[in-house]
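User: Second chain of the day. Same drill as before.
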Amino acid sequence: MSAGITVRCDRTGQYGSCPAQLLTDTTDLAEAHAAAERRGWATGGPYYCPRHSGRPATTAAVVPLHLRENR
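Assistant: Same format as last time:
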């Protein structure tokens, strides 16, 4: 079993809520906030994704764990 904090965008509008979420592998709220801030999220009150916070989105490098050769 594993535990982690999921940060979800609090933006709601006429047609529903924003589906953006950020999965973290930490159980510490301060670390989850720091990870979200590094990715462009606003966490100083309602949580907003980069699209709704007006901040530029940053991406983490994707590291493939297994390379599979196409045959």
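The chain has a mean pLDDT of 83.

User: Great, on to the next one.
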